[in-house]
Each structure stands twice: as structure tokens, then as C-alpha cells.
Amino acid sequence: MREVIVSAGDAVTAKLVQQAGFDGIWVSGFEACARLGLPDNGSITMIEMLNISKPIVEAVNIPVWVDVDTGYGNFQRTVREFEKIGVAGVCVQDDEEGCKTNSLWGGKTPLMDIEAFCKKIDVKRKSLKIIARTESIIRGYPIEETMKRLDAYTLFADILLPHTRSADKLNHVGITAKPYAIVPTKFPYYTNSRLFSMGYSMIIWANQTERVKIKSIRDCLGNLKTGDCADYIESNLSASLDEMKGLMADE
User: Fold this and answer.
1) Rounded to the nearest 10 degrees, how much is the dihedral formed by the CA atoms of 11, 23, 19, 81?
2) Nearest to 167 by CA among 143, 148, 151, 190
3) What domain range includes position 225?
4) Per residue in 183-235, pLDDT tens?
5) What is the pTM of this model?
6) First and final CA of the chain: distance in angstroms?
7) Of 29, 83, 185, 215, which is the most exposed, with the fewest CB atoms less than 10 Å away?
8) For residue 25, what are the β-bridge partners?
């Protein structure tokens, strides 16, 4: 298994990811919260994520993986509902429920008891796969805590994801036969080939497409404001109407 997964928050972006030849789609909780104007602290609901994910699944024929934060209170139901819309898998993290914050900025917060998290992810499912994500490294816990958690989670999850701001911190974890995923947001200079050579099986570029949109839209609006018309945008910044139509469903 060697897969590069790229984020998409809508059907058009998902089609572009597929056209570019990537292996799958990541539906990011962070991106979803940003689009809804919500903080990334568990405020988004399962229904909102289902509504975002369903059109994406229907638009592409590559696997769609969904970040479900801590599982929305009832992980068995979450698995059942996302299976219904055809996602390949979900990623659930071991933050203590009610204490979820975005770990790219946050400090040390409580994590679920290992046994409790294992019980949580040991759910009935058909084809849906589970990525068990531990926040222990990025939250500042000792590396031994991460190793203990990964050893336990491997019995119930299909893929393990030790979240980190530095790939170097993972050198001591070791890669087992169980597939490992990595989110290199804070070390974007690591190439896919380098990460694969380190033993990772799934690389998740989790928020780049949404951040590109923000800059592009800001540039577009700036030009529209200063140029007093859309001529420069049409000539230099935007896709053609035909390109846009080509990404829409047939009438």
C-alpha cells in the first residue's frame, strides 16, 4: 500500500484531485470547519460532515476518507452512517471527547484512556476502514506513550496515524506491518518518495487545496476591486466557463 491522499471539500475539487492522478480524497474536519466559519474544536456535527462528504463520494471513483474528529459521541453510529454513503474509511482521534482542539496550534490536552479508545473503535463494520489517530506526540506526551497507544490500536484499526509537527520525532516509533499514515502539514518539504522510503503507507495532504483557494480568491477580489472589471481575472486568474462546465454532472 502506497497512497497519496489529497484534501477536497467539494465535488469540483475532488474531481480535480482525481484528474491529477492522486489515489484518494481526504475530507478534512479543519477545512470543513473553516468553510462553515466554525472553530475546529468539535463544533461541527456528523450530519454536516455527511452532507459535505456525500457529493464528493458521488463525484469520483477513487476512495474518499473522512476525518470524523473524535467520532461525534457515538462512533458505532458514525461508522454506520458513513458506510451508507460509500466512504472508504474514517479517521478518528484519541482526544478526550469534549477536549478536542486543533493540535497544530494547541498544547497538551487530555487523551482518552487507551483501553477506552480501543473499546470505542472496536465496532461492527462492513467494508469501511478505520484510521486510528493518536495525538500523543503532537500534544507533547512522551514517545513511550505513543508507542504504547499504537501497539494497542493496531488490534482494532486498519491504519495507524501518529500525528506530529516533525517527522523526525517518529523515528523512534518504528514502522510495523500495520500500515501507517502521516500528515506532513508542518514539514511540507518532505517529498512523498522520502516518506514512503521511511515506511509510511499513506500520505495525507490535508488542507493544501483549501488554503490555495483562500489566496486565489483574495487575489481575484483584489484585482476585481482595483481593476474595476473582471478582464484581468478572465485573462490571468480564472478557469474558462467551459472548464467549469466540464467538471459538472451531465444534464
Assistant:
1) -20
2) 190
3) 210-251
4) 999 999 999 999 998 889 999 999 999 999 999 999 999 999 999 999 999 99
5) 0.94
6) 37
7) 215
8) 6, 64
